[in-house]
Write a structure and sequence with these properties.
Elements (H helix, E strand, L loop, with lengths): L2 H14 L5 E2 L2 H8 L3 H13 L3 E4 L2 E4 L2 H11 L2 H4 E6 L2 H9 L6 E4 H8 L12 E5 L2 H12 L4 E3 L9 E5 L2 H6 L6 H9 L4 H14 L9
Parallel strand pairs: 6-8
Antiparallel strand pairs: 1-3, 2-3, 4-7, 4-8, 5-6
Helix pairs in contact: 1-2, 1-3, 1-4, 2-3, 4-10, 7-10, 7-11, 10-11
Amino acid sequence: MKKNELVWRELVDAAVMGAQRRWDNVDDLAFRAGVASTTASYALRRLIEIGAIQQHHAGFTVVNPEKVLTLFCAARSIMTDTHAALTLDSNDLHHLLDSLPDHGVILGGAAAAVSLLGGVNTVSDYSEHVLYLRDSLAASAIDDMLSRMDVDRHTGYGRDRGNVTLLRADPRAARTWPDHTPFAQTYADLFATPGWQASEFRLALNEKFIAKRDWDQE
């Protein structure tokens, strides 16, 4: 992911999930996002321009998290972080996951949305799986297992993406994410995923976390 996306992701999760809209300074945001302060400052410029944040003294306040999320979604490209795009049946998928080290995989996409929505899938069936590999150890284990399996590989572009997408987690995500992606990453990944199922899960997340009219609060 690009570094400005890391900043926008942190702002959205802090505002929507952590009830933190006010930041005392840019350095705190940069530390939390895992980027340089100059990078964080640059990422804020577009948000200031569109009125998503309001500056005060050395810090700022997120007054419209939805606008920040929209920028994040528009910038998100799953292909950029794709380690492998595969077609696997359910047995092969379970076998692949069982071969990974403990906590080596992070659930994304629809599976993460189900967790965020309360743990019970009341939205839609889904057949596509988005999985983040936490570190190089997990990636090596996956590559070793795939070398011994007869699987269909895909480019990950358009319809040529199979039903399992393996992504590389960025360093901060690898350290801090639990067993599923947090709200902002889940939402943006669903936005960047073709298909009506992804849209249904994204809309369900929107209804639970974003839909209320709380913008432009100071």
